[in-house]
Amino acid sequence: MAIHAGSSIPERTVQVETGPVRLEGALAVPEPVVGIVLFAHGSGSSRHSPRNRYVAHVLNAAGLATLLVDLLTPEEEAVDVRTRHLRFDIGLLARRLGGAAAWLGQQQDIGHLPLGLFGASTGAAAALVLAAAQPGRVRAVVSRGGRPDLAGPVLERVVAPTLLIVGGADDPVIAMNREAMARMSGETRLTIVPGATHLFEEPGALEHVAALARDWFLRYLIPEPNPDPTD
């Protein structure tokens, strides 16, 4: 399936240092900008994921900056292709994601922006682990076809408003998301895209996902204006 998402917003390649490793990322900052969304890939994906890049372009058009970052080094990815174990190392992915969030906070032009997380597959679990660890920093989370159940006991500590998006034909993942949702105490919504499979390849399915994510982030990343006490 071909995925097209036009964007006139410049994207630059960045080096994100986290712990002992340096990760490759793609950063796009629209003008004006109202918030930033950090993407957490999973299950063998990378910053080149056409689906996540499509969602990122939709977010950019709405005034949200995006950082798509590889959570594994090229050497680790080569190992994971054979063993498929690093993509399920949620602790490692969450630490790398936290390093990317710290890197964003150090950037002079965007470090002040409210932060949201967009996670896909196992990356959704890493996003929720980070949200639980940094409740004051992470303002909103969106999961696309994610495995939030893999976040384990930290789910109860997630306070950031969380949107879980699952394809209507993705029965096993629907069950996993419902299981995770039952353990979460913060604001959580499960939205099922009718007829969509795990990769949202059906006509209009990914567009639906992107619109849901955009609306969720705009709702929770942009602070509401203080009421005028003279009114």
Q: How would you summarize this macromolecular structure in one to three sentences?
A:
The protein is an alpha/beta fold and 231 residues long. It has helices spanning 50-61, 74-83, 90-105, 122-133, 171-183, 205-221, and strands spanning 11-18, 21-28, 35-40, 64-69, 115-120, 138-144, 162-167, 188-193. An eight-stranded mixed beta sheet has the order 1-2-4-3-5-6-7-8, sandwiched between helices.
Sequence-ordered SSE layout with sheet pairings:
Blueprint: E1 11-18, E2 21-28, E3 35-40, H1 50-61, E4 64-69, H2 74-83, H3 90-105, E5 115-120, H4 122-133, E6 138-144, E7 162-167, H5 171-183, E8 188-193, H6 205-221
Parallel strand pairs: 3-4, 3-5, 5-6, 6-7, 7-8
Antiparallel strand pairs: 1-2, 2-4
How would you portray this structure in words?
The protein has 231 residues and is α/β, with parallel strands linked by helices. The chain has a single domain, classed as Alpha/Beta hydrolase fold, catalytic domain (Rossmann fold, 3-Layer(aba) Sandwich). It contains 6 helices and 8 strands. The protein has an 8-stranded mixed β-sheet with strand order 1-2-4-3-5-6-7-8, with helices on both faces. Helix 1 links the parallel strand 3 and strand 4. The longest helix has 17 residues. It is globular. The protein starts with 10 loop residues before the first strand and ends in a 10-residue tail after the last helix. The mean pLDDT is 89.
Estimated radius of gyration: 17 Å
Molecular shape: globular
Number of helices: 6
The helix/strand series, from N terminus to C terminus, equals: EEEHEHHEHEEHEH
Largest sheet: 8 strands, mixed
Proportion of strand residues: 15-25%
Number of domains: 1
Mean pLDDT: 89
The secondary-structure class comes to alpha/beta
Strand order within the widest sheet? 1-2-4-3-5-6-7-8
Query: In CATH's first tier, which class applies?
Result: Alpha Beta
Low-confidence stretches: none
